[in-house]
TrEMBL record:
Protein name per Swiss-Prot or TrEMBL: UMOD/GP2/OIT3-like D8C domain-containing protein
Residue ranges of the TM segments: none
InterPro entries, alphabetized: D8C_UMOD/GP2/OIT3-like, Ig-like_dom_sf, Ig-like_fold
Source organism superkingdom: Eukaryota
Organism: Pocillopora damicornis (Cauliflower coral)
Length: 199
């Protein structure tokens, strides 16, 4: 509450005025990966203040979008190949002050998964390896969901495809094994979107 009280001011008519603030904003900057030529939507934390603040979106110091009449909390933008990192700020401002939240976007080629992956080579990660209790299951808490992974047969180094139908419980040496819905794409299809389901 102290931070909020510090943002109060009183005008000549003894009416309390509040500086613009972004309610419920994260303590740290939001950092995420994005891919060239794909759409990214960012959502600004809710602004508050009196008079009502306006919101501006600023990328690397240049205003992309602003509004003085209605609050523009969403920004949709296409990632361009002009750099490998964007810094985009959502700025709430009124005549008494401003607050902002920063989004840091690490930009990658859409084909990064072809060269920037980590091999998973444990022999227990095959569909045929079924565990029967929680103590025997792999803990995948260390997997970075922002990265790309490739399953490989340890003995030969041969890549292995994900199953494309529902797997039985506790398969692949883990509590919830993943399978690809929609089948594997052909070379002619190129880059496609598929969902991985966990059972």
């Amino acid at each position: 509450m102290v931070g909020f009280v510090e943002r109060l001011k009183k005008d000549d008519n003894s009416i309390f005025l509040t500086l613009a603030i972004l309610k419920y904003k994260p303590v740290k900057h939001s950092v995420q990966d994005a891919y060239y030529q794909t759409s990214i939507t960012l959502v600004c934390p809710e602004p508050f203040g009196y008079p009502e603040p306006f919101v501006a979106w600023v990328k690397n110091g240049v205003v992309l979008q602003n509004s003085s009449s209605d609050l523009t909390l969403n920004l949709s933008i296409i990632a361009q190949r002009d750099t490998t990192k964007w810094t985009i700020d959502c700025v709430a401002r009124n005549k008494h002050g401003a607050d902002y939240h920063r989004f840091v976007l690490n930009l990658h080629s859409r084909y990064a998964m072809c060269t920037e992956f980590r091999d998973l080579m444990e022999g227990s990660r095959t569909v045929g390896h079924v565990v029967h209790n929680e103590q025997s299951a792999q803990n995948d808490g260390d997997i970075d969901n922002r990265g790309w992974y490739r399953f490989v047969i340890q003995a030969t180094g041969t890549p292995v495809q994900l199953p494309d139908s529902c797997t039985e419980p506790w398969a692949c040496g883990t509590q919830a094994s993943g399978w690809l819905r929609g089948g594997h794409p052909s070379m002619e299809e190129g880059l496609v979107h598929r969902n991985v389901y966990f059972s």
